[in-house]
Amino acid sequence: MTDADQVREVQARDDQAREDQSREDAVEAALDKLDLDAKTRLLAGQDMWSLPAVPEIGLQSLVMSDGPIGVRGVRWTADDPSVALPSPTALAAAWDPALARRAGRLLAQEARRKGVHVLLAPTVNLHRSPLGGRHFECYSEDPYLTGAVGSGYVKGVQDGGVGTTVKHFAGNEAETDRFTVDCVIDPRPLRELYLAPFEAIVANAHPWGIMTSYNRVNGTSMTENRYLVNEVLRAEWGFDGYNVSDWMAARSTTGDIEGGLDVAMPGPATVYGPALAEAVRAGEVPESSVDAAVRNVLRLAARVGILEGAPAAVAEPPSGIDGQALARELATRGFVLVRNEDGALPLDASAGRTVALMGAAARDARVLGGGSATVFPERIVSPLDGLTAALPQGALTFAVGADPSEELVPADQGFGLRAVCRDASGAVLGEGSLPSGQVQWIGDDLPAGAAYDTMASIEVTGTFLPRESGEHAFGTRGLGAFTLAVGGETLWEGVQEMGDEADPFEAFFGAPSERGRATLTEGEPVEVSLTYQVPDMTALPLKAIMFSLLHLAPQRDADELIAEAVAAARAADTAVVVVATTERVESEGFDRRDLALPGRQDDLVRAVAAANPNTVVVVNAGSPVELPWREDVAAVLLTWFPGQEGGAALADVLLGDAEPGGRLPTTWPARFADAPVTEVLPVDGRLEYREGLFVGYRAYEKEGIAPAYPFGHGLGYTDWAYESLEATAGTVRVRVTNTGTRPGREVVQIYLAPGEGSEGGAPGAAVERPASWLAAFAGVEAGPGESVEAEIGLPARAFEIWDETARGWRRIGGAYEVRASHAHGDTRLTATIDVA
Ligand code: BGC
């Protein structure tokens, strides 16, 4: 560092300290002016997404929104579209914190456009089991990679002056019984695996918020977890942001406030507000606890620039970022090429070459996972759209081949729908357009003119243009009284009652019900209508309307579809098969039961591969699926949920305009049974993390099981020679040469393996450790024939274990093998270091 740099750095630190102080002063001044009722009101949602404004102290209403691949805004509607980036698994697959930071900056720009101050993201729970329903929404099975990507993301969002809530703190690795499950996790795995990403992000990126999860950890609900929140997160790690409950997670006024929960969401009915003021007056809670929470909220408000008199943390947020271009770039950077026999990819697209594309998801792309992560992009580029645009006319054919959607889904393809709200006399109160047959109105998010107390019915109505002739099935999801009509004829009139398993999110995640069928003709539009009687909601804490009009196209004979695809594959130079999971497979709200591709997709791939040796399989899934035919095809490209520009990115990569830049952030098992954790159902309300430290590659290595594709694996379009490795306990230097014919990016991965005698710590006290673990990584770029050196710092934590007895981290000295690797288990160079 030059002298001038040093001066600048000191100056920047001083400026920062002055600004922090001036925000703290403004926070204290504002706090002084609030009485108990105003303070407790500020800790409770006023509606689904915001806190109340307090004009007396110059505080505007603080608005929060999901997260993590886009910013939905406060409305669940297509009227207000959002850029949809690739799934978090895809972002992690880029192994590039700087890229995650760029994604974060775009999201901040989106948040500002929509008047959102805090993004409910990132999700940094670990890939403990591939069954986890929100696996696609988390980054990795490895805590270090998760922390690195999450830190980049948080920095990026906050560069834009928008807050983050790192979630779900902690132990939310699965969805089953998530409101009540008690995750039983030993101190070492808790610290070394599940808390580690949160700790790293607090240290590296200084997040302005955290979200505590629904579940319990070791017996205590996370919103009431004094130990993990007050002692670990705040006292030990120095977190100074606000702590918001997951939606409807806050269940105890005194328990939550004493457990360090600052804000209870959503509102207006919460355990805070008047109930908290009451508890203070009754002497059950000291007012100082309320003050501490209010301080955290005001500090956040100051940072995002909505507290008068306090300087916003970012005066000039970055702007003008092209969301479409970034979504496309991110997608290519996250695609992982796991198999590429004889250079099958990139495709030879010279004149006269033909491509047969197949798979239902090639036409109806799955670009994002389900649940609160859903946003509504302005456009979706499917693989069919992307390849049609990129290939010469006549070079591409399409056949469905196999359609995995055997269940009814919210009416979407071919439907143009709107919702009409009427009062008891039938007069129209308001109307709104719908992105699909799914109505999802929460709190005040109603079409203009509509109100809960006057609305008697809601009709989802519009036209449907069938793509196929035959028997179309229609159905509903949600509770209440419905009338369903197609082509002017009533198909069903009835009431859906709440089942035995009363789940507050039944209407969101519940199973679809078929209600009737109509025989329709391809290309001939019909009117459809689903009328819902609005129930009395006066007694409900949160007013919401949730129901769906569902549809399933005629199911063509599966063998016939495969035969059609095989004929197309035979006639083409290359066959590209897109296989995918469905919305009933990967979503928030439930876990998976197995990793099989739904429907006849495996049969389709086998049949096509037998017909055409140049078969490329594109896997459109947010998390691992079994690929039993993987050795029989020429190439396998994992595209995750690739976001709105996925099809354009796919064309870029298949045709070689871009390199598939990804490396696996999680191990892909050969068979589901090989996964380290194959059961996520709680037993008697408890989910025991029995595998301890051994999740992901740590477990495969321990058990000696070869996965289909190891952690860190990914081929790209060029080759790399590892030339030299120099290592100390602080820094590793690796020289690599691009020995291929194209420019590329290599992710140099550094694993540590404890050598003989290093596991000991104190003599005789054997310490259980994985055989190896990721310590650090760096991305390098080089042109053909070029060499480049990666200088990679080794974090001290890589040599430490958690010592619960001493309540601290303990460095384990001794000999370590440092492995410079292309992937876990694909070690190219080693060195031995002695660590004091
Ligand atoms: C999810 C959170 C989300 C919140 C608000 C919850 O059900 O678990 O991740 O931020 O809803 O949509």
Span between termini: 28 Å
| Overall geometry | globular
Oligomeric nature of the chains: single chain
Strands of the widest sheet, in order across it, are 10-26-25-24-11-12
Number of H- or I-type helical stretches: 19
CATH topology of the largest domain: TIM Barrel
How many discrete domains? 4
Unreliable parts: 760-765
Radius of gyration (Å): 27 Å
* Strands, count: 36
Provide the helix percentage. Answer: 10-25%
Ligand set: beta-D-glucopyranose
The portion of residues forming beta strands comes to 15-25%
Q: What structural class is derived from the secondary structure elements?
A: alpha/beta
Biggest sheet record: 6 strands, mixed
CATH superfamily of the largest domain: Glycoside hydrolase, family 3, N-terminal domain
Assigned CATH architecture of the largest domain: Alpha-Beta Barrel
Give a short synopsis of this structure.
The protein has 836 residues and is α/β, with parallel strands linked by helices.
Layout of helices and strands:
Blueprint: H1 3-32, H2 36-41, E1 64-65, H3 88-93, H4 97-113, E2 118-119, H5 143-159, E3 163-164, E4 166-169, E5 182-184, H6 187-194, H7 196-205, E6 209-212, E7 216-217, E8 220-221, H8 226-236, E9 242-245, H9 253-258, H10 274-281, H11 287-303, H12 323-334, E10 336-340, E11 355-358, H13 360-363, H14 383-390, E12 396-399, E13 409-410, E14 415-422, E15 428-433, E16 438-442, E17 457-464, E18 470-477, E19 480-486, E20 489-496, H15 506-509, E21 513-520, E22 526-533, E23 544-552, H16 558-571, E24 574-580, H17 601-611, E25 615-620, E26 635-638, H18 646-654, E27 686-688, H19 697-703, E28 720-727, E29 731-738, E30 744-754, E31 773-782, E32 787-793, E33 800-803, E34 808-811, E35 814-823, E36 826-835
Parallel strand pairs: 1-2, 2-3, 4-6, 5-7, 5-27, 6-9, 11-12, 11-24, 24-25, 25-26
Antiparallel strand pairs: 7-8, 10-26, 13-23, 14-15, 14-17, 16-23, 17-22, 18-21, 18-23, 19-20, 19-22, 28-29, 29-32, 30-31, 30-35, 33-34, 35-36
Helix pairs in contact: 1-11, 4-5, 4-12, 5-7, 12-18, 14-18, 16-17
Bound molecules: beta-D-glucopyranose.
